[in-house]
Amino acid sequence: MSVPVLIVSGPVGVGKSSVAHEMFDQLIDRDIAHAVIDLDAFGISWPYGEGDPYNERMALRNLASVWANYAASGVDRAVIARVVEAEADLAAYREAIPGAEIQVCRLVASAGVLTERVRRREVGSSYDVLVRRSLELAESLEVSGPADFVVETSGRPLAEIAVEALTKAGWI
């Protein structure tokens, strides 16, 4: 069975989680069965695996477990918010979601917008690290990040961004 999967990728602060949650509303409005999974939450545990600084393996193991529950309840497609840095990383998503037909939507925003969003959101110890990581990711994803299509998020309403991405993916 084929499972459409739309991964919303991009640097820290670009709006992955917010856009994915807006996609949830847009798909509900169209009566399209789906799950929205903010994969960052699935990897929040300590200690991280050796050689896995972003706890990717834990997040993907948890994705496989949760996906089995969604599939058993009739959910037949998924929106996943998570940075995907390389095409090779998609194999683990295909393993976690059997039959996954993956599209990657890379969200982009200017460096100033990314920095401002991180500043507004991160008030704790991680601020400097996350700003630095955001700008590094923006650059590296531009060069080598997988993307079936790109959507600009700067200065745009969430609904507009989500509808553009879902339309480009062929879901609406």
From TrEMBL:
Q: Which Gene3D superfamilies match?
A: P-loop containing nucleotide triphosphate hydrolases (3.40.50.300)
Q: Which InterPro entries match?
A: P-loop_NTPase
Name used for this protein in its record: Adenylylsulfate kinase-like enzyme
